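Journal club side-thread
Mid-discussion, someone asked how the predicted structure for our own chain would compare to the paper's figures. Pasting it here so we can look after the session.
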Amino acid sequence: MRKVLSSLNLLFTTMFLSIVALIISPFDGKGKAIHRIARLWASTHIKLGGIKVVASGLDKITAPPYIFMCNHQSALDIYGLLFSLPLSFRWIAKRQLFLIPFFGWALKRAGHISIDRENPREALKAMDEAARKIRDGMNIIIFPEGTRSRDGSLLPFKKGGFSLALRAMVPIVPVGIVGTSTLQPKGSFIPAGKGVIYIHVGEPIPLEGMGRSAKGELMNSVRANIERLMQKGESSNA
């Protein structure tokens, strides 16, 4: 019964709140109201699914803007981050999501950033625009793996997010997420049952003094931090 309610809730709230977001977007220049709607959407999904979110390290988020970089195991990661992070942010997402009626239109109106992976020129323009918005104060979340891991292990990182970070020159905050791949594996529409998500926020990594030649070093540093945070989550779950 919980699965049926969760499915109906997700369909209804996604449609209804997307329409609300579209209506208020002309009057919400900074996107704060739309972000609150997104948090309500996530909170409803999390609570109705019987999910508990345990977040640590939130006290480290003191001087935005930031680029948050997180491991990606499940669609549930998105709900968990919206539910737990105490500041407004935008996603960098593939262009196809922005084509979904109502939901995708609301993403675009809210200021989320579309990346066309099949068009390098357009992708570069989008990255330049994203860097400008970040320098102007926008927080961004990136999944550097570029896709969801099926078994929960950390996949190889894509370089694009690190190129963006070195353009924007704001700190990167590593985030380790544990538990979502078990509760809602890749390909699942709703959580399989009750459970706990652990979200561990690491120390911001400053980029001052780094040039673009430091991209590889930065990738390794962020990866090591995310791996450590994931291990912390696994020990919490033990």
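Post-session note: The CA atoms of residues 81 and 199 lie 8 Å apart.
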